[in-house]
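pinging the channel bc i need a second pair of eyes. not urgent but kinda urgent?? the chain im working w is below, pasted from the shared doc
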Amino acid sequence: MRKNIIKLIAALVSLWAVFGIVYNVIPIVRGQWAAAHFFKSLTNEDYRAASDYVMNADQQEWTRNLAMLKAEGLILTNYSDLMVTLDDSIVTGQTTISLMEGNVKKDYHVYIEFGGSRLSPRIANIQYTEADDTLKKWIQATTTASLP
């Protein structure tokens, strides 16, 4: 009888651990992966690949918006300190991006909102707390086609 109770407790603890990993860890890892590939594709100016990680993106319009920004001299040159977490069971993130407009490079701290399922998060929106016209223009180009 005692062995059966120990086996039952072990089984319940195992199920709880598996549930915790699937429900909490996997969305963070998948969100981190999606955001890293999104920003890496943008820094490499591979807009088509970056659009694969955007929620509801019209790929042609989205890549056209970023190509127009590039023609105007505004590009993403780097990202750093990418961190993805769960906030009330919602996948969120933040990073520092470096935008170059002309010969002027500036760093901005931005927040990432994810959409899609917990197991396949995609970038739904990028927000900021303080911005100038350069960041606003870049965010508008990266999120206009992704908003429902």
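so The mean pLDDT is 87. and Residues 1-143 form a domain with the Nuclear Transport Factor 2; Chain: A, fold (CATH 3.10.450.100). — does that match what u expected or am i reading it wrong
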